């Protein structure tokens, strides 16, 4: 027994659990053969460096699991044979076609540590309404633990507050029975794609677009038609003759941040009515529209053909996982029927707190402050880029948390990223968001950086991109 390997305890593992694991592994590996009699409790406890009581508790557990058998005064014997050697892992896992398509659609994040990190998707904790949110959580905690409302759409209080907010601020046409609470936009996209798409059907996505959306559509086996985006948004004249779903971000296109104009909005809705397609309208960054009033959502013009998706992860706090889906009641009936197979209603406490933050006016007050901060930070970045990179064309955007910077010829994204990294600057490339070959560009997130960091980062970037060798 003194020769048994004694690997260290795992984090949080108790002495009893550690002792049981040591003996279990020794039996499973054949180090203590089946039928062998274990030493007396005091001797075995001493060999393992534990108390007699700890050893007895561990042996009681192992007896319940069938590894040992207590024989009274005759001691304890091993009653389980060693495990057969595990075969080597196959060279390729037997993945389903869905998993293969889903993995093929993933975009790998570029790692690294930078002095000034402009990469998009970073949290902006100083812009979150921490006070109102934590107060709402505390106020609703008791009600959430009591349960009660088990509506598969989510608490009625929250759906009423969301409907009122969307109707007042986004020009939507929403009643509470058209709202389903979700854990975020990605989960809602996945659920809709599974319900409506399959091999042989067609889906539409903007190009470039959010890669998670394109991956969710493509994973179903449906054909995903990429429709290009230009300075006026989705090129509606290039929509296919038939489709089941179309994923769009008309209020603030991701990643170009352009807004879809009125004529193209009308053309997109006419196409949806003619083809019978549902439009999945991702209201990305709608609440973070910091240049004038945000445009009304498409859903308000055609609630029977538009499914509106939204999330508060960027405007409220990413830890809330509070999102929503607005759809015709007949669509929601299907989603609530299929939801139990893959999902559950999001956390009740967060949902009830969201109802209070929306209904009390705290969220509107928070947005007014956040929009001012974002507008100022964007202005600082654009001025600094103009000074550091004369002749480059970073244009102001009306909403969102990043600036879209097209690259002038002959620059490539790889060259710009490498030179920027050498100067300690992190950027996000646009190439992985494009289905084919598009105009080279990079994204610069600005919301999470204070003005002095924005100016310093722009100066570093200007130094990195001066003509000449790196």
Automatic annotation (TrEMBL):
Entry-linked Pfam families: Aminotran_1_2, GntR
Ranges annotated as spanning the membrane: none
Annotated signal peptide: none
SMART domains in alphabetical order: HTH_GNTR
Domain HTH gntR-type intervals: 13-81
Matches recorded under CDD domains: AAT_like (cd00609), WHTH_GntR (cd07377)
Keywords, comma-separated and alphabetical: Aminotransferase, DNA-binding, Pyridoxal phosphate, Transcription, Transcription regulation, Transferase
GO molecular function: DNA binding; DNA-binding transcription factor activity; pyridoxal phosphate binding; transaminase activity
PANTHER family found in the cross-reference section: HTH-TYPE TRANSCRIPTIONAL REGULATORY PROTEIN GABR (PTHR46577:SF1)
Family recorded in the similarity comment: In the C-terminal section; belongs to the class-I pyridoxal-phosphate-dependent aminotransferase family.
Protein name: Aminotransferase class I/II-fold pyridoxal phosphate-dependent enzyme
Taxonomic source organism: Deinococcus arboris
């Amino acid at each position: 027994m003194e020769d048994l390997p004694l690997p260290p305890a795992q984090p949080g593992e108790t002495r009893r659990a550690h002792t049981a694991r040591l003996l279990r592994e020794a039996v499973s590996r054949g180090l203590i053969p089946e039928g062998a009699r274990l030493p007396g409790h005091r001797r075995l406890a001493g060999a393992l460096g534990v108390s007699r009581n700890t050893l007895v508790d561990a042996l009681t557990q192992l007896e319940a699991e069938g590894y040992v058998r207590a024989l009274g005064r005759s001691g304890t014997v091993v009653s389980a044979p060693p495990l057969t050697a595990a075969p080597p892992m196959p060279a390729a896992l037997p993945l389903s076609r869905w998993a293969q398509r889903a993995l093929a659609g993933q975009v790998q994040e570029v790692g690294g540590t930078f002095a000034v990190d402009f990469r998009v998707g970073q949290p902006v904790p100083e812009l979150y309404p921490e006070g109102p949110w934590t107060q709402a959580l505390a106020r609703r905690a008791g009600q959430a633990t009591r349960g009660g409302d088990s509506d598969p759409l989510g608490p009625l209080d929250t759906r009423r507050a969301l409907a009122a907010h969307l109707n007042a601020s986004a020009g939507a046409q929403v009643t509470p029975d058209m709202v389903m609470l979700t854990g975020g936009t990605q989960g809602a996209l996945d659920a809709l794609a599974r319900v409506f798409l399959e091999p042989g059907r067609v889906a539409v996505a903007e190009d470039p677009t959010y890669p998670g959306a394109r991956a969710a559509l493509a994973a179903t086996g449906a054909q995903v038609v990429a429709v290009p985006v230009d300075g006026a948004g989705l090129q509606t004249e290039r929509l296919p003759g038939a489709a089941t779903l179309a994923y769009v971000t008309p209020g603030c296109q991701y990643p170009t941040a352009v807004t879809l104009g009125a004529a193209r909005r009308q053309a997109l809705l006419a196409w949806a009515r003619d083809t019978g397609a549902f439009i999945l309208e991702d209201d990305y960054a709608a609440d973070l529209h910091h240049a004038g009033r945000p445009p009304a959502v498409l859903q308000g013009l055609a609630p029977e053909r538009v499914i509106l998706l939204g999330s508060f992860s960027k405007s409220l706090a990413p830890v809330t996982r509070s999102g929503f889906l607005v759809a015709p009641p007949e669509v929601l009936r299907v989603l609530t029927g299929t939801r139990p197979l893959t999902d559950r209603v999001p956390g009740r406490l967060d949902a009830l707190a969201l109802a209070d933050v929306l209904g009390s006016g705290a969220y509107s007050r928070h947005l007014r402050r956040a929009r001012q901060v974002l507008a100022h930070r964007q202005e600082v970045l654009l001025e600094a880029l103009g000074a550091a990179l004369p002749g480059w064309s970073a244009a102001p955007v009306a909403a969102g948390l990043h600036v879209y910077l097209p690259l002038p010829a002959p620059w490539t994204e790889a060259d710009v990223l490498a030179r920027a990294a050498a100067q300690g600057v992190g950027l996000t490339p646009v190439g992985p968001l494009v289905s084919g070959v598009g105009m080279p560009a990079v994204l610069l997130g600005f919301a999470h950086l204070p003005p002095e960091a924005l100016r310093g980062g722009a100066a570093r970037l200007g130094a990195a991109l001066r003509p000449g060798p790196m």
